[in-house]
Amino acid sequence: MAAKWRLEGEYIQSCNCDYGCPCNFDAYPTRGHCEALAGYRITKGSFDGTTLDGVKFAWGLWWPKAIHE
Q1: Domain boundaries of the chain, sorted by first residue
Q2: Distance separating the N- and C-terminal Cα atoms of the chain
């Protein structure tokens, strides 16, 4: 049985491409790979009955090619 979850919140991201994030539009990264940072703030949320309200987290990401490949 699938876990019940829901999220509402905000996020910000930045990548190493020249303009925006081409991978979000099925284009290729400026330098052939993707490096990104993303930060999230959950304003309302839960996972299997556990509240996630107020949780904040960030992560650094690296892909050897375009994200969509």
Answers
A1: 5-63
A2: 30
